[in-house]
Amino acid sequence: MNTRPLISVIIPTKDRPELLKRAIDSVLMQSWPSLEVVVVDDGSGSETAQVLEKIREKGVPLRFVRNRVSKGAAASRNIALEMAKGEYVSGLDDDDVWYPNRLERLFEALAEGYSAAAAWDLFMRNGRMQVWKKPPEIGYEDLLWYNRIGNQVLVRRSRLQELGGYDEDLPSAQDYDLWLRLTRRFGPIRIVQEALQTVFEERNRRRITTGAKQAEGYYRCYLKHKTEMSASQRRYQLYRIRLAAGKRVGCGELFRASPRSLITKEILRWIQS
C-alpha cells in the first residue's frame, strides 16, 4: 500500500507543445509513486490542448485548464496551486527536464526547521553545460543578495497558500519574491548537493516573461524588499538589475557594487558579457 504523500507538479505553459510533452514525460519517469500533473495553458493555440488530451487518454494523472486570455506566469502558477490536491507541490518550467529521482531526493531532504527543499541545476546554454552548485542551505539573509535558489523547490502546499502564492503584480522575479517570503516565515531552504534537473536557456526561445519585463520585475521585487536589505545588498541588487536591463557596466562599478565573496563570480560574468 502506497503511503507516500501526493505531490502536485505544477507546469505553466504557452505555445510550446513539444517541449511541454518532454517536460511531462520527465515527470512521469519519477521514482516517486504518488503524484499528479497540473498544467495551466496560458492562452496557447489548439495544438497544446491536443498534446495534453493525448497524454491524459493514456491514464496519466493529469489535469489542465486553459486561460482564454494570457494572464502571465505568476497568475498561471496560482491557478495551478488552486487546482492542486497534493500535500506538497513542486514546479517545473515547460522547457526544462527532471531527472528520475528528483522528487524522491527532494522529499528525503525535507526536515524540521527547513521551509522547503531544492537542488543543484544543470544549465544548458546553447550547447554548453554548467552545473549551478549551491550551498547545503540557503536562508533569508542569503537571498537578500540575489536569488540563490533558482526557479523551483519542493514545499508544503499549505505554506504557499498561507503566503498568498506568487505575486501577480510582478512581471518577473515572482519565484525570487516567493522564496524571500517563504524563508522569512518558515526558515531556510535545504539544498540537495547534486543536479536533479536540466534547465535549458537557449537564445531566441519564446518565454512567458521576456525582455524588458524581466528587469522591471526584478526592480519591483527589489523595491518590495529593499527595507530589509543592508546598504551593500542594495548596491549589489541595483548592479544586477542594470545587467538584467542590458546596460553596460564598467569594471569600477563592478568592484564598488560586488561584495568580496562574489567578486570572482562577477568578474567572470563581466568578461563573458
Defining traits:
single chain, five-stranded mixed β-sheet, alpha/beta, globular, 273 residues
Walkthrough of the structure:
The chain is of the alpha/beta class and 273 residues long. Helices cover 41% and strands 21% of the residues. The protein contains 11 helices and 10 strands. It has a 5-stranded mixed sheet, sandwiched between helices. Strands 5, 6, 7, 8 and 10 form a 5-stranded mixed sheet that branches. A hairpin with a 2-residue loop joins strand 6 and strand 7 (128-132). Helix 1 runs parallel beside helix 2 (46-57) and helix 9 (231-244) runs antiparallel to helix 10 (251-257). The longest helix is centred in the C-terminal third of the chain and has 14 residues, at 212-225. The relative contact order is 0.13.
